[in-house]
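Sample A.
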Amino acid sequence: MRLAVVGATGAVGTVMRELLRKRAFPADEVVLFASERSAGKVLDGLTIQPLRDDTVGGFDIALFSAGGSTSKAWAEKFAAGGAVVVDNSSAWRMDPDVPLVVSEVNPDDLDDARKGIVANPNCTTMVVMLPAKALHDRFGLTEMVATSFQAAGGAGQKGIDELAAQVAPLAEDVDQLVNDGRAAARKVEHSVHANTLAFNVVPLLGTLNEEGYTDEEMKLRNESRKILGLPDLRVTPTCVRVPVMVGHSIAVRATFARDPDLGEALEALREFPNLLVEEAPTPLEWAGRDETVVGRVRRDLADPKVLNFFVVGDNLLKGAALNTVQLAELVVDRGLVGSAAPAA
């Protein structure tokens, strides 16, 4: 089995490589691909290859995490050469011929990869899907109000680096943080995040549309509908960037067709694979952990059909690299390797 990792030097690609080793993925050969400037360098004892027509054929599985433009340009070429592509970008998520899959939630959708491509959801959507699916199966989900608290690492290594560079200069003058926050915010530069992130929260994450929602927020609505198979699911999203290095958190107000019993809800959450229940989980404490964790599960004060909960997951692991590798494992387990490429 030949496996390609495209975007091998990035933040998610680095975690993918670690997971492939840690989980002993059954590849006989792993080939790393990255940008032209990285081609020829040695990483993990392997020489990084450039993306060219003569280098992308003959793979069984290709894991992509190199951005949407790269995925659009090269995913179909890998698939045409016989690979099942698992793509971590937004390029293919809403394509009707490309399944959008969370490994624990809708694995059967893998069987419908007509283009030979499987899409990995947005990291925020991913975290919400595990408890949403567990509760939907019991009570029938009809609506979600989801407010995210997304880590700097959601923007990749550059997002982490920008936050880290801002902390020390602002921390030097606590009085200014208290009494002249605008001046403090302007002491440092920002280009990755929409505003200074250190000691702050930024309620603008992505590009605004005409209705005042960002593309990040629309992903949360549209991807949730596709993954859960609920095209009419009502979703009201708000995405916020917070000064956390790694780990997305989402506060969810979920409405169901029938009144949810709290005890039954907690039972469903505890029984769901790779989902843990804790009283008040925090992203810092769950950074570097594979599982998704949910807490603050409670009945709504006003509506008997509503449950409120708070869910946390490592956006580089389950939110990206881990689910990608899990999908590759499912492709192997389900005998789909070599079967999903388009017919000549």
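Sample B.
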Amino acid sequence: MRRGPLEAGEKVQFTDRRNKKITDQLVVGGSTQTDHGLILHDDVIGLTEGTVVTTVTAKREAQVNQVHPERDAAKPWKATRAIGGWQYAVMRPRLADYVLSMPRGAQIMYPKDIAQVIQLGDIRTGHRVLESGAGSGAMSLNLLDAVGEGGEVTTIELRPDFARVAEANATLYYGRRPQWWSLKTGDFDSVAAELPEHHYDRIMLDMLDPWNRLEQAYRVIAPGGVIVAYVTTTTQMSRMVEALRDAGVWTEPVIQETLERSWKAQGLAVRPDHQMIGHTGFLIVSRAMAEGFTALRKRERAAKDTVTDVDDLTDEEREARLEDLELRDISDRKLRKVLRDLDRMVDALEG
């Protein structure tokens, strides 16, 4: 964690009075372009966090399309963007801010999902974590922070270009490459086959088909270890859950999604924002049984069939199976009462 004066080379976050944020790297002699002029980096280097800086006037001609100036003739506001005098507060970005602003190759996980992975996966200081799917490094950074330098994170990324993006983002965040991070490229099964048995306390899978990776995952995870899978569609979620159950060596999976909504609070005007972050993905959490032991399962009623597709049934079979398929959640007695009440109200309407 960095403390003290802001230094050249590190990332900082500029926030104006409208809460608009700009994250940039401080460079000697550099500047950050805003909607209200330039922030000169030399004026920022050496300051402490929480300082307010003011933009300076930029060259107006730089705001206009030099190749086709006629295209900006009807856009007088573009020249006003060069005018300085706008204030920004300077802070080091939080990890969540850094993740959302960092250069990315693949789509990142949202902070709301990452936070749940850390909490539900019980990822703590000193843990050994295996991650599959580095993407742009958003999850990797949070895992590295959670386990600390006394822990160990091993990331397997299929695409070398994504691995480079993740490594660069982690290096920029820490100011150096984290020494407790092992980044490997290749497919999960091939790389995991070379890893020691029962070495990892936690496994995080962010990939297209995590259900196909459970054999190697079980080989390398310690008994009682937690596996977390992040998938985006209901079909992926269903396949992963059934694969965990069929394997017999994972506890009953828990499925969760998180919705995020921010609020406005200004005097007596307190209300939720009009927009929210809805569904982004499902988290599936399970734990590894010890070798030689089978996971305990809830016993289902023998007559209850949740596998047969309703489209494969005849009309008579479908009618007989309504209760088993849980398509009717009202008793016959209550249904008769509802019908009597409705009949009475209809009669009163007609009368």
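B remarks: The first strand starts at residue 11 and ends at 15. The two ends are 78 Å apart (CA to CA).
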